[in-house]
Design goal:
The structure is a single chain. By secondary structure, this protein is of the alpha/beta class. It has one domain: Alpha-Beta Complex (Maf protein), CATH 3.90.950.10. The protein has 8 helices and 7 strands; from the N terminus they run βαβαββαββαβαααα. The longest helix is centred in the N-terminal third of the chain and has 17 residues. The structure holds thymidine-5'-triphosphate. The site of thymidine-5'-triphosphate has 25 residues, from α1, β3 and α5. The site of thymidine-5'-triphosphate (TTP) has 25 residues, from α1, β3 and α5.
Length: 209
Amino acid sequence: MTPIFLASSSPRRRALLEQAGIPFTLLTPRVSEEVDGEPPPPHQLVERLARRKAAAGARLVDRGLIIGADTIVVFRGRVLGKPADSAAAEEMLHLLQGASHDVFTGLAVIEQPGGRTMTAWERTRVTFRTLTDEEIRLYAATGEPADKAGAYAAQGLGAIFITSIEGCYFNVVGLPLARLAVMLAGFGVHVLALAAGRPAFINKGRLEE
Ligand SMILES: Cc1cn([C@H]2C[C@H](O)[C@@H](COP(=O)(O)OP(=O)(O)OP(=O)(O)O)O2)c(=O)[nH]c1=O
């Protein structure tokens, strides 16, 4: 079987790949998320960063498929990454409240040996209800926004701000699983076939939820 690697230090991505029943090994190469010059459009930016992360992982691996991903929030053309501190988190939440924004995740899968690469991106539209200054302050103080693009976690307490999601929910949390499954199939790895060989794992996952 082709070994699968996830080049990511995001606990959310790890959890989502586990949810899909895909056995994998974690790689945590250090990757800069800086881009030189004029920033490209959001979909190109996330694809480029996902490719950079997967490529950094691929340098550590002789054989297998290496997955990289990158997530950003875009509000009226402005790219919101992870907030530097709680003041930056509050500033982002002030922008996002009472309006819709887009979440973009780029995906890259690199095959080793050979380096055959597939990239893709996914966009999800998320709408926030109106938030009071007090709610924003209290939420920022929980620490949840710290390592999340756009300063919120749809999978966490941030859920109480979201009135609608159009598109892939898993894309918001950092790993669009439907898109990834199609990409892996392009490399001959079929997620359901993996899961079918591991019924005990799946039942265990369900029971624990
Ligand atoms: C919008 C949103 C983002 N996020 C997270 C997913 C990503 O971990 C993070 C975006 O940062 P990324 O730079 O995409 O990822 P990361 O630095 O956490 O991990 P790595 O680069 O090593 O793979 O924001 C949520 O967990 N929930 C949300 O609702």
